[in-house]
Amino acid sequence: MTPQSTDSPVETDYEIAQNAAIDPIWEITEPFGLSQADVDPYGRYKAKLTPEAIDRIQSETEPDGKLVLVTGMTPTPMGEGKTVTAVGLGQALTQRGYKASITLREPSLGPVFGIKGGAAGGGYSQVLPMEDINLHFTGDMHALTAAHNLISTLLDNHIRQDTEPRIDRKAVRWKRAIDMNDRVLRNTVIGLGETGGAVREDGFLLTAASELMAVLCLSKTLSELKDRISRIIIAYDEGKNPVTVADIGATGPATLLLRDAIKPNVVQSIEGTPAFVHGGPFANIAHGTNSVIANDVALRLSEYVITEAGFGSDLGAEKFMHIVSHQTDVTPAAVVLVASIRALRYHGQEMWPADLDALKEPDVAAVRTGLRNVDKHVENLRKFGIPVVIAINRFPNDTDEEIEMVLDHCRNDLNVSTAVSTVHEDGGAGGISLAEHVVSAASQPSELTPLYEPEASIETKIETIATEIYGADSVTYSSQAKTDIERIESLDMDTPPICLSKTFHSLSDDPSLKGVPEGWSLTVWELYYSAGAGFVVVLTGDVMTLPGLPADPAATSMDIDTDGDISGLF
C-alpha cells in the first residue's frame, strides 16, 4: 500500500488499516512453501498452521533463517515503537527482496480495553486484520483462561475432598485467571456458604500473567507442552512439599484445552509480509516474547525473522538471551535497539516527575543528556556478543538538529550502526536504510555469551544481572527472599535461569530514577519457582498481575455502528 502524501489529511491508524488491501491468508503463505491445506483458516485473513504442516516443516527443513531481536532503550510511558519498528523492518526486508517474516505477541483484552488500546503496530507498519488480532483473534486467550481455571477448580475440589497429597490451603499459589483488567478481583475469599467448598483466600491474575502462557510459549510440541504443564507447582502440602498439576490429575484435561492454542497463528502486515502472532507472556514475571514454535517455524521458512522482546533491553532482551536462547538454542543474529528523541528528552530532563507534555517540544540539551541511557543499553547488549543496530524511530516533532546529534553520537562515539526509521509514516520504504544496516550486522560472525554460567547459584545470577545490566552497586535480600532461595535450592531440579521482575520505567528498581542511576542497591523481596516454564521468578517490587482500569479507560472511546464498523480501537 502506498503511504499517504504529506498534503493529504492525516489518517488514523484504524483508518489506514480499514483502507488497506488485504489478501486471503493462503496467498500470503504460498510463497513460503505452504499450500492451502497447510493452513487452517479462521475466516479469509487469519489462520493457524496445521499440525501436519508443522511436523513436515520441522522434519524436512532446518531453522536456517536469521533471527533479529527488536528491543529498546528505557521507554517513556507512551512506548517508543518497538512493534512498529519490528513490522516496518520486516516489510523493508521484503521490499529488498528477502524472504522475511515477523513474529509478535498477541494482545490481551485487558490492556486493549484498559490503557493501551490496540497493540498491532501502527500507521503503515501494522499487522492485519487489526480488529480481529486485538479482540478474540483465534481464541488462544480464551483457551488459556479455560485451561488455567480448570486447574483451579480441580485444585479446590482436591482440597474439598481431602485427597492426598493434603494441601495446605494457606500455601496455594495458583490463582484464577481472567483476560480483563479488573482490580476488585486481585484478592478474593472463596468457599463461602454451606455448599461453597473450603474457605480460603484467593484472587485473579491476567491470563497473560499465567504460567500456562509462559509454558505454551516455550513449548515446541504438544508433548513438550504436556510435560511442562505437569511440572507446574500450584501449592505446597502440609509437609511443605511442592504439589504439581500432575499431582491433582489436571495435566491431561488442561493440555487438551490447549491443543489448538499451541498452533501458531499467521496473519499479514499491511504490505503483505507474513506475521506469526502467537502467545503473549508478561515481560516481567515471564520471558516476554512470542512462542518459540512460531519462531522455529518462521526460521525454517524465512531468510530473516523479526521478533520483539517486551520492555527495554534490560528486561526483554536479557530474558531472551538467558531464558529463551538457553532453553531453545535460538540465538539472535543481530539486535535492533529502538530509541526515540522523546525518550531521550525524557531521560535528560532535570525535573521529576517528568512533564510528559514537554516531550513534544525540542530540547537539544535534554536529548544530549538522555543519550547516557542509550549508551548503557548498547554497553549491556554488547556484553552478549551479538551485533547491535540502533533504530531512531522518528516522530513528526523531532528536529533535524536533534536527529543529527544522535546519529553523530551513535555512529562516531559509540561506533554503532545507526539508521533513522520512518516506518510508521512510510511503511517498509521508511525502513530500507535500517534493513541494510541489519543485513550487514547479521552477516557478522557472532556467538551468544551468557553473563552467568547455568550452574551458578541463584544469588550469583541475580547479582550478575543487577550489577552488569542494571548498574546496581549491590543486592539486598529480604528475610522472605532468603527463605525462598533456601526452599527453591532444596528442590530436586536442574539449576534454572532467573527471571528478574522490576519496573520498566528505569534501569533501577525505582521508577522515578531516569537516565543511568548510580549508587543504588537492588532489593529482592520474594522468589518463586515457575517449574513448568523452567525459571525462577525474582520479585524486586510490587508486581501488578491484574491491572485495574485507568480514570479514562480506552474502552469508553470504543464503539461499533449498525454496519459492524468499529471505532476507537486505536
Automatic annotation (TrEMBL):
ATP binds at residues 76-83. GO terms for biological process: tetrahydrofolate interconversion. Its EC number is 6.3.4.3. Pathway: One-carbon metabolism; tetrahydrofolate interconversion. This is Formate--tetrahydrofolate ligase. Keywords: ATP-binding, Ligase, Nucleotide-binding, One-carbon metabolism. NCBIfam families: PRK13505.1 (NF010030). It comes from Natronocalculus amylovorans. It catalyses: (6S)-5,6,7,8-tetrahydrofolate + formate + ATP = (6R)-10-formyltetrahydrofolate + ADP + phosphate. Belongs to the formate--tetrahydrofolate ligase family. GO terms for molecular function: ATP binding; formate-tetrahydrofolate ligase activity. It comes from the Archaea. InterPro entries: Formate_THF_ligase, Formate_THF_ligase_CS, P-loop_NTPase.
